[in-house]
Amino acid sequence: MSSCFQEEPKRETTEIQRDQRPTAKQLRDLVEEAAHRVADLKSRAISPNTRHEVTYNYDEKLIRYDEAKDKAYVSVTIRWKARKALIAESKHDFEMRGELIIDLGFRPSSYPVVFMPSYANAVTKEVATGDAATSTVTFDLKKK
Q1: What is the DSSP code string of 37-62?
Q2: Which of these, 98, 101, 44, lies nearest to 71 by C-alpha position?
Q3: pTM for this predicted structure
Q4: HSE of 3 in the Cβ direction (CA atoms, 13 Å)?
Q5: How much of the chain is in helix, strand and coil states, percent to nearest 5?
Q6: Minimal CA–CA distance to 58: which of 99, 92, 104, 112?
Q7: Of the candidates 128, 41, 42, which has an alpha carbon nearest to the alpha carbon of residue 91?
Q8: Signed CA dihedral, 12, 141, 94, 87: sign only
């Protein structure tokens, strides 16, 4: 008598195996998580008490993966609004654009992320204190 069983299909994870090219889905998931965090960090740094309707976007087709450097790159646009009642009527639409880089190189529990702003609209520059509109953001994405 023989018995036969089927293995459960493996669930895809955001953790990329060492020396393996990440799948398109893994890259999209990591970029999505990183872009969300960048939007939160940048909007909070520039207008912490007035921000709402925070959005971000990027073109999934433009996510680039550099196999030699083991990094993913994509341009991200962040937009948010400030509550109109709290600031002048003409100063409520914020926008930033920049390059998001995720280092997929070996780290035991995280992926380092860098966001380098390349553009901030006039409102963002005017309201931002210090170098908040132009400064680079770095953080680690925890592996799941």
Answers
A1: HHHHHHHHHH-TTTEEEEEEE--GGG
A2: 101
A3: 0.81
A4: 1
A5: 20, 35, 45
A6: 99
A7: 128
A8: positive
Residue with tokens 């089927």: 6
From the list 80, 66, 76, the residue with the least C-alpha distance to 21 is: 66
Q: Which residues contact 123 (CB under 8 A, 6 or more apart)?
A: 91, 92, 93, 94, 95
How far is it, in rounded angstroms, from Cα 18 to Cα 70? 10
Rounded Cα gap, residues 58 and 134, in angstroms: 19
Which parts of the chain sit beneath pLDDT 70? Answer: 1-19, 84-91
Q: Please list, in sequence order, all residues whose beta carbon lies within 8 angstroms of the beta carbon of residue 57, skipping any fewer than 6 positions away.
A: 76, 77
Q: Say if residues 56 and 74 touch (Cβ distance below 8 Å).
A: no
